Amino acid sequence: MENMIYILFICMFVPLLLSLPLIQKASRSVMIFILIGISSALFISEVNGILLQLLGYNTLFVTTNITPATEEITKALPILVYAFVITDNRDKLLTASFAVGIGFALFENTYILVNSVENVSIEWAIIRGFSTALMHGICTAAVGYGMSFVKKKTKLFYCGTFSLLMLAIIYHGIFNMLVQSETLKCFGFLLPASTYIPLIIVLVVSMKNKKKKEKAAKQKKAAVE
After folding, report:
1. Which residues does 43 contact at the CB level (< 8 Å), separation at least 6?
2. Which residues lie below 8 Å from residue 195, measured CB to CB, with a gap of 6+?
3. Vertex 202 angle, CA 198 and 205, to 5°
4. First to last CA, the chain
5. Contact 38, 75 (CB under 8 A)
């Protein structure tokens, strides 16, 4: 169906949008960034389609050299605006950026599923969920997390922002090259998980240390009073 991508977008976007007034404020911002991710996926699919046509439908070249840049820049733009205009809080930026990446992956996976329903399987779904979708979340999260440091350093803002975008683009490009390789495909599928698991461990340890410090500060304050 010619307009399937727009049909999918409406079916996904509208119900989530209508749920915003009923969601608590803390969760509402996450939902908003998921919606931004879905919208980014729709926008960049049109751009990538035009580029693919202009480059003679050379899928390997486009997916390893073009789409990593177009997709990561598109996903990063709302996060850069959020960091520059609203807040540079590390926790908020990490949550918002990961939500954008997951929203992007959610729409992308659904569209691929609908267009290739005869060629998909449980294995395909597991691989897409734990590799490609996770890769999108990690790349955008890296930009958001890094912006919490860069935003506070005026002299590093421009070069730091550029470096974060390059990091996401290169990571994305390496992933795309690996998963399209006949011999290194497995390494590509494992790359996002090998990045995600250490990140979660670091965040959990950091959160525990933060809570311990806050508890110690409260106890010290109570003792003084």
Report:
1. 74
2. 138, 171
3. 135
4. 70
5. no
CA 32 to CA 23: how far, in whole Å? Answer: 11
Sign of CA dihedral 22, 24, 30, 33: positive
pLDDT tens for the 225 residues of the chain, in order? 568 899 999 999 999 999 999 988 878 999 999 999 999 999 999 999 999 998 888 888 999 999 999 999 999 999 999 998 898 888 899 999 999 999 999 999 999 888 887 778 888 888 888 999 999 999 999 999 999 888 877 778 889 999 999 999 999 999 999 999 888 899 999 999 999 999 889 888 888 887 887 777 777 776 666
Is residue 97 within 8 A of residue 210, CB to CB? The reply is no
105: number of Cβ within 10 Å:
23
Q: Which ranges of 55-156 would DSSP assign to H, the alpha helix? A: 59-61, 67-81, 90-115, 122-127, 133-150
pTM above 0.85, yes or no: yes
